[in-house]
């Protein structure tokens, strides 16, 4: 018999905590709370195996946060690490736990509190398990998003949804999975705490299904944004309204699972990377030093600005229209990332250790990794795994930056060339994404065999 429980606790940061993303050293301490942040957890077991999924309204989490939180959950529930999934909505109007260099200072007290809150949600969900049935569905939504890295690039249009119900039919929990950068609210209210589109989707689902607690699992959106037309006060609600409506329609057409097997699997991954050349590191460092020494702010858009930001003029706007301040901040970033990299440039291994995780609850399969995953890879995993209902959960269990495909690696784009600097990593190679896909497909196969 399948048993499930769901719980939610607060993650809203206290005053003074910076929001993550959106620029270099902006010191974006929140001014208002547009909507509260949450940690929402689902626990499920079939009498033989148990899994816990925790959806966090944070931008990213690192491996240390993941380890501490899993330890707290494991001590209270006995559920092993490989069966505990921690995944972020990636809202840019939220803090991080682990963070990104220059994109929002982390607060150690808040990070520890957020870990304890995430564990609390998981433990409460575990303690309130009761008999349940699961219903799943999926649909395609191809009108809301675009590939921001290339013209006519692919996106993953799959919207997956699952509902855990009591045997009486009363809904307990709703999980929805879709991939798009949640920055609609960031453009409109950059100084406000908010869950952005993922939070509004959850609110709408809960309104439509009284008694249910909704969870949004962020999909493969390293190369995907909602259309920029939605960053308009009159249209900001359209993405969430569309996603919630189509999720409910997919659920209505969906099927209940006859064999509610619960399973978990994890595969270790060694992602190939390429070592930064000393010339690459010193070029960034020397340009920053020269500009600061000579107070030369000319030509930065064509220089380091090309890789550092997708939209240079927006970076100036985010610094209050002060171009000198914006360029000084970029120079500071170059000095700090090169300091960290030069400390062990020649010694560190040319691979990155991470993992791929898969969970199963009946006909619902979840597969996760710690990257900002690109759409072509998500489509490959979907095609090769052929699971009944598959959710691709990214920003999960750690933080390893963008995982771009060959196009962006060759182009030395923001994702391919700048992102590794935020994370103090070497750049990925063309082989990195396929290696991760193989591990994800393998973990799903392990779950299917359970």
Descriptive account of the structure:
A hairpin with a 5-residue loop joins strand 9 and strand 10. The model has no long low-confidence stretch (mean pLDDT 96). The chain is globular and about 70 Å long. The protein folds into two domains: 328 residues, no CATH class; 65 residues, no CATH class. The strands form six sheets. A five-stranded mixed β-sheet has the order 5-4-3-1-6, covered by helices on one side. Strands 12-10-9-7-14 form a five-stranded mixed β-sheet, with helices on one face. Strands 15-16-17-19 form a four-stranded mixed β-sheet, covered by helices on one side. Helix 8 packs across helix 9. It has 450 residues and is an alpha/beta fold.
